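Fold this complex.
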Amino acid sequence: MSEQDHEPSRLNRRQFLKYGAGAGAAGLLYSSGLQARALATKSRIVILGGGAGGMAMANRLSRRLDGARISLVEPREVHHYQPGWTLVASGVWNPEKTMRPNSRFVPNGINWIRQLAAGIDAANRKVELEDGSQLDYDYLIVATGLQLNYQLIDGMSPDLVGSHGIGSVYASIEGATRTRDAIDAWIAQGSGKGIFTAAPTPVKCAGAPLKMTFTTLSRLEASGRREAFQVEYMAPGDALFTQPYINDFVKQRFDDQGVTRRHHYRLSAIDPQARKAEFTFVGPDSEFTSHHELREAEFSREGERKVVTGYDFIHVVPPMSAPDYLKSSDLIAQDGPFRGEWLDVDMHTLQHNRYPEVFGIGDVIGAPINKTAASVKAQAPVVEANLIAQLQGQTLPRRHNGYTSCPMITGIGKAMLVEFGYDNDFAFLPSFPFIDPRDESWVTWVMKDRMLQPAYYAVLEGRA
Amino acid sequence: MTMTGILTILMYALAPFLWLIVTSVVLLLTVQLLAHLRGYRILGYRCLGANLAAIAVGLTGLWWIPLFTHSRLAYVASVFDWIALIGALFATAILAWLVLHPLSFLLRGKSASSA
Ligand SMILES: Cc1cc2nc3c(=O)[nH]c(=O)nc-3n(C[C@H](O)[C@H](O)[C@H](O)COP(=O)(O)OP(=O)(O)OC[C@H]3O[C@@H](n4cnc5c(N)ncnc54)[C@H](O)[C@@H]3O)c2cc1C
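Structure:
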């Protein structure tokens, strides 16, 4: 097992320089809560995944718990700022801007296990690692994000991204970069048809496929030959976005910008050589939801109606689910809308519905919205408080309201700050009284372009 | 959000521009210091040229601030957008004035200060 033990919790040199330079006054450091009282415990806590959620929890718990043995299972050396991928694929950012070494964020005192988790034995509180070894836990936080199921589209594989006119911002940072190249090549061609797709499952950053359409439209308009390009958007359900106001707005804007919308179609197969895509009509009952029954119906091959169409560029959004190792564990939802597909947690307390020592955070959880880093920011303090209460045998004090946020890019240079939660038909939950979520704005774009990445890193450090 | 949270965000946001911030501050301090050593007093010296040049530098922000943010002036739309942009123009103009005003004193010499 390759692992690295850090020194016990102390301000390291990097943190010292940062806060020393930034604060400049002891008063600021004091008021920051840096010295928050820690709870003594000998518990073994395992965090699966060191992305946005796992890293935020590692930092928060290492500060709040004294003596706990915390292990972070994360194979990657490089941390990827995924919200930057849309900007990379749109040609606005360089890919390097989205990467930082994971070692910058892993707190001292944590046992960082650089491996994949391969299985979970929830009944015996054990995690199986890639090399066959086992890790025992008293408390488990599942934060391994979600799995991209490209294989559910016949003929499709993430390796194809960047060739044969195929793009997919989700594939990886390399995929996002190759998506940019594929869009460049399409625009350089001077005309042709572009198809933008959505998935029949919940996806991370549900706005990303729409953002890719809008930024590409900006680029087509800037080419001066917009009318030579055909743009189509294929949606598996009635809606394009969960939040009702934004859904109507996007539909109207697509109509105004000459985007042909087709509803109730999912991408079922692709023939890269022939540049042809097959779409399956999934019926007007289909919704942009996660219902397991619906997924079964959509992926079944009986009684389907198909449309095959050519393209010059296609943006592929794969179906998504919890990772396979989790799906084959007892932690997966066993009934309800997330059955067989997502982690079975109470969407308010984030505690597992059957194993109270297990919590979930981030993309992996079964919840109707929420697959964003912005949600992780809202969820992390909830998991922290509730896990600590559970550890002390107290009732869980905090509830997550489903907060999620999407800077909906409506063109290169402008965006809308869409923030909403579970309640009141996904009503807006604006953070800033001076920014109207219904307005397209330059400041919102500047926030997306310049401020959200710093805020994201503050979340990783457990500071925001 | 805690103060360390705000500091963390600021630290990450400013890090890529640290060289620019440091260069600007060094330039500003050097020019101010040199001019003060030669008798420059901020309110005791008048230079219409420096004032106009500072306003012009501020106004160039209408072009480069949107460009610097990968956007364009046409997308500055909401009331808050305009408040933010005008604030940035003001800040640029004041910064330019704090450099150009003493610089003009240094270039024109003490004789001009009584003009
Ligand atoms: C194109 C795109 C655009 C986005 N735009 C936005 C946006 O504008 N705003 C926003 O808030 N969010 C956005 N997001 C979503 C955001 O990035 C995710 O919601 C967030 O990263 C979720 O955090 P997580 O910890 O659940 O998963 P991740 O950050 O994906 O981390 C999961 C981690 O688990 C590790 N892992 C996986 N499997 C295993 C295993 N078996 N064992 C151990 N470790 C494992 C991985 O290496 C990874 O580090 C976007 C995402 C994408 C892809």
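Residues A 48-54, 73-76, 82-83, 85-86, 116-117, 143-145, 169-170, 204-205, 208, 323, 325, 362-364, 371-374, 376, 405-407 surround flavin-adenine dinucleotide (CB under 6 Å).
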